[in-house]
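This follows on from our talk about sequence and fold. I would like you to pick a protein and set down its sequence and fold. Go ahead and set the record down below:
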Amino acid sequence: MKKLLIFPLMLLFFSCGSDAELTKETPENRPFREFITDFSNSTVPIDEILSGGPSKDGIPAIDNPQFIKIKEADKTTGDPEPVIVVRYLEETKIYPVQILTWHEIVNDNIAGMPIAVTFCPLCNTGIVFESRIDNINLDFGTTGRLRYSNLIMYDRQTETWWQQATGEGIAGKYAGRSLKFIPSLFMSWNDAIERYPEAMVLSVNTGWDRPYGTNPYSGYDTGSPFLFRGETTPQTLENLNPLDRVLLVEHQNKVRYYSYKSLNKEHVINDSLNNSKIVVFWSEGTASALDVSRIEDGRDVGTANAFLSKAENLELDFYFDEGDFKDKQTNSVWDYTGYALSGPMEGKRLELIAGTQHFWFSAAAFFP
């Protein structure tokens, strides 16, 4: 196993509460020499890019992921821990955030489609991309740089730099291009294994020696954004704090966010986005991965996911009734994964659309 040497300097500076030595990387002074990227082809100002501490691949991506059955994974994963669930065709995979926190990128495939499963702890953004451009399969590593506190990835084929929060190429050959979002569910381990008992789970046997299950960013999501150099986070009618959670929903190039503060009160929001009816479900039971030192002991922050409000060619309106999600048209009972548990729609699924959990400062910075 590859041993844990020195954990990325980003965490050292974070724990010390100082970023005095983390400087802006400008055209006149930038340690980019380890990259072959053409930085003259850039869509963002270079001086917005900051060193997070680690060098290129200092936070190692997982390139050869191993998968195990739920029974084995249950030994190392606590019930409320957050996981990312990816379903494509007939295959379902579960990626525990306790592993993603230490690696940030998993290069994988599902049912023959190449994907990158990514998580930026500083922005709380877990996003899955199809890792293919112009029929070229890409795999990704970490640059060690941040923009608006967010992970900047690079692909190993062209060394184009990619912004994780948006999936946009920001420097190099594919600057201006975008990776395709793959809708995924963000949910608790306990709920994931109940809903998808046949899923395969990313194993902690990654080839790296890391204390999986622990949170190296203890206390982060009740503190302040690390190394954020953007506009002041705007105020809202809900008086959101920069590290309050929101669900950012994207459908056919239109974007809208829903705050957990509102969702916690309503549990369900019916809406329309780009002429499509959508629904957002929120449920308690998912722990914060960025709260206390043991992830499974993190406070309950809940989770939210978004769907098209249609099943069997019938448009539906949903309401929350004594712990259940129900639709007004058939009175069927649904869960927050968009699955009908009982009633005339039993066994049907709503179509999942791309939704990403962000801290409010991150959503406001990248989708103003």
The chain has a mean pLDDT of 91. The two ends are 43 Å apart (CA to CA). The longest strand covers residues 113-120. Residues 47-202 form one domain.
